[in-house]
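Risk register update: the risk of archive-format incompatibility is retired. Evidence:
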Amino acid sequence: MSAPLKSIEGSSDIAAAMGEIGRRARAAARALALAPVDQKNRALGAMAAAVRGQASLILAANAEDVAEARAAGVTGAFLDRLALDPARIDAIAAGIEAVRGLKDPVGTVMESWTRPNGMRIERVRVPLGVIGIIYESRPNVTADAGVLSLKSGNAAILRGGSDSMRSSRAVLTALAEGLRAANLPEAAIQLVPTRDRAAVGLMLSGLDGNVDVIVPRGGKSLVARVQAEARVPVFAHLEGVCHVYVDKAASLDMAKTIVLNAKMRRTGVCGAAETLLVDRASSQLRPLIEMLIAAGCEVRGDKATLAVDNRVKPVTEEDWGTE
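Archived output:
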């Protein structure tokens, strides 16, 4: 069983706790900015090992989150985003290892030029500092966001969905073990310890200047709130209405592989394909439709698509902009 959630009651308690998180993150960011790539990679390797080693604890915590969400009557797509299993735990660890294998971005020279007086100027990548990341109920994002921030030399303050609080805490425990193994500050990756939405408002205010940028990862309403209320720079996205285009010259086998993976690998995530565009000069529309329907996907299409397969349903104008 996972540990009970820490309770922070009252606006003054939340403000004090968030202020301390901000200060600790700022101190950790200074250390990370100077950390050599070998030290960061050592932490990432230990994190991946800890995630695998603590899989049973993470799954137990996730089971509590899933049970609570199911009792609340959430949708099946929501449960799919929230739920973890051994394969998804291993995918989290593999993702950490993939980040470990990336080239260190810190210190990379992006551009250089020499002035007429002989002075050489370079544009060099440096860490941003402290990144506040606000996301919804996908516990794997706790690892994704934390390790990407670490690799790029930034400290992270994570505010995951309230429905995945136990799961995110269990994942963070494994990440903290990796930080300790590499002698890096545990405050390099912190999780907001309350479900109270007041904590989000405090993050958006910048925590007394200790947050350098906010990254929202979630639905349209979350992104809109962050953009409206943030008093620090924001890296925002809009909706996950993803398109796949198949050109007339594309290999049919390749197109089938890409389209099937893009739509059916995991339909509940924002990266799943919503719209398939096929070149009118292509003969690939029919086999692609047949493949999707055989895989259990409902296909809605325009007049040309309806003429290809009578199982296709008419598309509405609203469908084109719906995730």
